[in-house]
Specification:
Organism: Flavobacterium faecale
Pfam families: Xre_MbcA_ParS_C (PF09722)
Helix content: 55-70%
Protein name: Antitoxin of toxin-antitoxin stability system
Shape: globular
Strand content: under 5%
Order of helices and strands: HEEHHHHHHHH
Distance between the termini: 46 Å
C-alpha cells in the first residue's frame, strides 16, 4: 500500500502538465484535471472522478473555461444556450458556480468522446449541428442544456462508436 501511495504522490508531483494522446489532434499541454485535459483524457477520467468532483466543487476558473473554448475551436456565445449562467455573468466571475462548473466538465467529457469517435473536431461539430433521427430530429447540440439531454447525446455517440444504429 505504501508503494501505491508513494508512486501516486510522485506522479502528481512529477508533472501537472500532460501531453495529448489522441491521434488527429494537435499536441497541446494542459494542466492535469482541467476541462481541456478531460477532453483529451476522457478514458483516464473515470479513475480520477473524485478529483474531478473536487474540481467541480471548487469551481472552474475563467482561464480554464477560456482554454477549453479555444481548444474546441468554439466561442462562448455558441455555448450560451446550454450553460446555466449567461456569458455576461460568466465574464464577471473569476471562478464559476458548482452548477456551471459541472456543465463545463460534462461538455469536456462529451467533446473528448466525440473527438475519439469522429476522429476530428470538425466532423464531431458537424454531427452536433445535424438533426438526428434517433434524437427526435433534434440537433444533438440543442439537447445539451439538460443532464438527460447529455445522456441521450452521449448514448448516441457510443452507439455510433460501436456501429449500433437505431
Amino acid at each position: 500500500m505504501d508503494n501505491k501511495v508513494t508512486s501516486r504522490t510522485k506522479a502528481k508531483k512529477a508533472s501537472a502538465v500532460i501531453q495529448t494522446p489522441l491521434k488527429n489532434l494537435k499536441a497541446v499541454n494542459f494542466a492535469e484535471f482541467s476541462p481541456s485535459w478531460v477532453v483529451l483524457h476522457g478514458k483516464d477520467a473515470p479513475s480520477f472522478k473524485m478529483e474531478l468532483i473536487d474540481r467541480i466543487r471548487q469551481g472552474v476558473k475563467k482561464p480554464d473555461w477560456k482554454q477549453l473554448i479555444d481548444y474546441i475551436d468554439s466561442t462562448e456565445k455558441e455555448f450560451e444556450p446550454i450553460l446555466p449562467a449567461s456569458i455576461s455573468s460568466m465574464q464577471k466571475k473569476a471562478v464559476y458556480s458548482k452548477e456551471t462548473s459541472e456543465r463545463i466538465y460534462e461538455l469536456a467529457r462529451l467533446f473528448g468522446l466525440g473527438y475519439e469517435v469522429f476522429d476530428s473536431k470538425e466532423d464531431f461539430k458537424q454531427w452536433l449541428m445535424t438533426p438526428s433521427r434517433t434524437l427526435g430530429n433534434k440537433l444533438p447540440f440543442e439537447l445539451l442544456d439538460s443532464s438527460f439531454g447529455f445522456e441521450m447525446v452521449e448514448s448516441e455517440i457510443i452507439r455510433i462508436q460501436y456501429n449500433v444504429y437505431s
